[in-house]
Amino acid sequence: MRLAILDDYQKAALAMADWDGLRPGVEIQAFHDTLAGEGAVAEALRDFEIVVAMRERTAFRRTLLERLPKLQLLVTTGMVNASIDLKAAAERGIVVCGTDSLRHPTAELTWGLILALARSIPREDAGMRRGGWQKTVGIGLHGKVLAILGLGKLGSQVAAYGKAFQMEVIAWSENLTVECANSLDVRRVDKHELFRRADFLTIHTILSKRTRGLVGPDDLAAMKPAAYLINTSRGPIVDERALVAALESHKIAGAALDVYDQEPLPADHPLRQLENVVLTPHLGYVTDENYRVFYGDAVEDVRAFLAGNPIRVLKPV
């Protein structure tokens, strides 16, 4: 059988798990570049029985699955992947499996981005390399308002970091209760107050039909001119055009983004031209420790499938 490892940007996948344990019965090929467009993906994968996908980097919609006649097993890193049509996969007899994952890497990156914004670290670093010295005046986090949209497992970790920095932490989501927020020493507010009071607003909710475009022009308009927005969840949760407009007009002070509507972010995207934005290339889950969990579990998934006892199977709701 042939196995494809997709979107291995750093050429790291084969070093992160015991893929040799699958050989010689399984021929393994890692793809290091993004396969742009459904046609390119279908052409590249048409002779593979097994595909290991990295999060949502490559979408597997019904139309693509119909063009992969040999595909028997699709493994996604993580246990949730909105870019895979589980119903279409089930109809075609394709088994879809997930992996475990670590929660803290994304929370840690979020805090790194908050500090980068507060103290203009990327801008000052760039200035130093050009021979400059002290161009910006930073702000402290002590006493500032940390507003969290989504107080689940990730959001609660970020809330704890905010408390350690002696920030006032507030939160909102449609399903967040006062009792849940209070248990984390966080004050539950309504959505408008969340944006109105935020000094730093960070997003930690999953992308779904309900949350797509959840942060729109009116929400951004409610923010203070000195406020910052941080998104390490999914790009389409925020109206990207509205965010670019708010940043270009300095209606908000800045943003730090790890996720985008289109990934990789196009080279000519306007976000790349803005000085009040810190950009990272979807690094939230990209750590050595997390990759070892992802790929180690992926190997286990393949081995179990070949033995006739699939594990961590994802089924349509």
Tell me about this structure.
This protein is of the alpha/beta class and 317 residues long. Helix content is 32%, strand content 15%. It contains eleven helices and twelve strands. The protein has helices at residues 38-45, 62-65, 86-91, 104-118, 121-129, 153-164, 178-183, 191-197, 217-222, 240-248, 288-306, and strands spanning 2-5, 27-30, 50-53, 73-76, 95-97, 145-149, 168-172, 187-188, 200-203, 228-231, 254-257, 277-279. The longest helix is centred in the last third of the chain and has 19 residues, at 288-306. The radius of gyration is 21 Å and the shape is globular.
Distance between the termini: 30 Å
Read across the widest sheet, the strand sequence of neighbours is 8-7-6-9-10-11-12
State the major sheet.
7 strands, parallel
| Chain-averaged pLDDT | 96
Q: Please write the string of helix (H) and strand (E) elements.
A: EEHEHEHEHHEHEHEHEHEHEEH
Q: Report low-confidence residues grouped into runs of 5 or more.
A: none
Rounded to the nearest angstrom, the radius of gyration is 21 Å
Number of strand elements: 12
The proportion of strand residues reads 5-15%
| Estimated structural class | alpha/beta
How many H/I helices? 11
Shape: globular
Q: How much helicity do the residues have?
A: 25-40%
